[in-house]
Design a protein that fits this description.
Helices cover 42% and strands 13% of the residues. By secondary structure, the protein is of the alpha/beta class. Strands 1, 2, 3, 6, 9, 10, 11 and 12 form an 8-stranded mixed sheet that branches. Strands 4-5 form a two-stranded antiparallel ribbon. Strands 7-8 form a two-stranded antiparallel ribbon. The radius of gyration is 22 Å and the shape is globular.
Length: 450
């Protein structure tokens, strides 16, 4: 399981880039070394019983050996239902995953299916390295309509469907119920407001014995502030999830920044330089009243938190209307696949039946395929945390979603301008007008990339 939010901003951008790759997974990498992962040379029509030949579909994931074992156990059902197709897993070390996949793609020896994050998907698609599944999707409309609304949008490149989302990462606030009770506060519920959030963080903060206790522990960046702006009816920070044409600092965006600045200055929440590495460990000890995290920490809390720790989860607050952040990890294929019909069948099974079997055992994230996410929600309910499932389902059905980061290839040039300005503005070391300077520099990057 990934670590969630850890260090502020220089680490945050890197973290968010890889949290999309790692957050919705079951653990570290396998210790087995990967062999050659070339696609099968089996002839005939893929998956066709009349061909008389078995089709082998190869795949790799970044999951732990334990998680891979669960995935492959679920795939036995697929092989029983499709006796002319066998699925072979190629183990790959997690810490070398991206390098290995890129090497395979370049050498045209990539497996038929490999796990990917949204950033990695779009980067490889821009290089013409991924298979176009548009035709299969158009012929399989019933299946494609089964995904949560909007989640497949960012899995297109240049009008082509280049992959399928598998698991969704959502972001909300985990809170200590006893801390709220002791402070005389009502527990936050779906639809709570930013005023509720800032009031709570003030009352939950303290400075006893010279030790600063923040009421709220969270990383902040322009994408989280974009939620405040959009919820207020103003423009988002980035005008599109997939290919933003500009960034904008609205008056409401500034209003949100000022509220967070005040909270930081008064010690109600952590400054952007605060090391958040051990925040979840402190949360388990009852020392953290509220913290912004990805939904995957719920699985860890259910398994490892002290039994007497009373905790809950709530989506981000609103000003007027709901706006949320979520992103996905999933599956894609190289242009070199030789049996696309068989591979498409495997992809569909992975996104639906496989997750239905695996998620009850490892409830780390909801499935992007809506019907299959019910297994995840049921697992949370069984564990006594139906509120987490209700909050996540609410997030996934939001009428508005914003990007968790830049997904475009020019992100590496734009992000340093955020890092250079953002934390100084939040800490009052730079004027609020610095945000417009930051936006101008990012817009220049976007313009030059066109």
């Amino acid at each position: 399981m990934t670590k969630g939010a850890k260090k502020w901003f220089s680490g945050m951008l890197t973290l968010l880039l890889f949290s999309s790759l790692l957050a919705a997974c079951g653990g570290g990498g396998s210790s087995d070394s990967a062999g050659s992962a070339g696609t099968s040379d089996s002839g005939g029509t893929s998956g066709s019983k009349s061909s008389g030949k078995k089709v082998e579909v190869t795949m790799i994931t970044w999951e732990s050996k334990e998680m891979n074992d669960k995935i492959m156990a679920a795939m036995k059902q697929f092989e029983q239902e499709n006796p002319d197709i066998t699925v072979k897993l190629i183990p790959t070390p997690l810490d070398n995953y991206g390098v290995k996949v890129n090497g395979m793609l370049t050498a045209k020896k990539a497996p038929d299916i490999f796990m990917t994050g949204n950033d990695m998907l779009l980067d490889n698609a821009s290089k013409g390295l991924l298979y176009d599944w548009t035709s299969q999707a158009e012929q399989d409309k019933e299946f494609m309509d089964g995904f949560y609304k909007g989640v497949v949008d960012s899995w297109h490149y240049d009008g082509k469907l280049v992959g399928l989302p598998g698991l969704l990462n959502t972001y909300g606030i985990f809170y200590n119920k006893k801390a709220f009770q002791d402070a005389g506060l009502t527990e936050p519920k779906i639809g709570w407001t930013y005023n509720d959030l800032f009031t709570a963080m003030e009352k939950l903060s303290s400075k006893q014995g010279g030790v600063q206790q923040f009421g709220y522990y969270a990383p902040l960046d322009p994408f989280y502030l974009s939620l405040y702006s959009v919820s207020s009816g103003a423009a988002p920070f980035a005008d599109s999830i997939l290919n933003p044409t500009k960034v904008e600092i609205s008056d409401k965006f500034v209003e949100g920044v000022e509220k967070y600045k005040t909270a930081i200055a008064n010690g109600y929440m952590n400054p952007p330089t605060f090391d958040l590495t051990n925040v979840m460990s402190s949360f388990k000890q009852g020392k953290v009243p509220m913290t912004l995290q990805g939904q995957w920490v719920a699985d860890d809390l259910i398994r490892t938190a002290p039994k007497d720790l009373q905790w809950g989860f709530v989506p981000m607050p609103v000003v007027n209307t709901q706006s949320e952040i979520y992103d996905a990890v999933g599956w894609c294929s190289p242009t070199t696949v030789k049996n696309p019909e068989a591979v498409w069948k495997v992809l569909k099974f992975l996104d639906s039946k496989m997750y239905e079997k695996v998620l009850p055992q490892t409830p780390v994230a909801p499935a992007a395929y809506q019907a299959s996410s019910s297994a995840y929600f049921e697992a949370l309910k069984t564990a006594g945390h139906a509120d987490v499932g209700e909050g996540i389902d609410h997030i996934l059905k939001s009428p508005d979603t914003q990007p968790v980061r830049f997904l475009s290839s020019w992100a590496g040039k734009a992000n340093p301008f955020i890092e250079a300005s953002w934390k100084n503005v939040l800490m009052g070391k730079a004027p609020i007008s610095e945000l417009n300077t930051m936006a101008d520099k990012i817009n220049k990057v976007i313009s030059e990339a066109k």
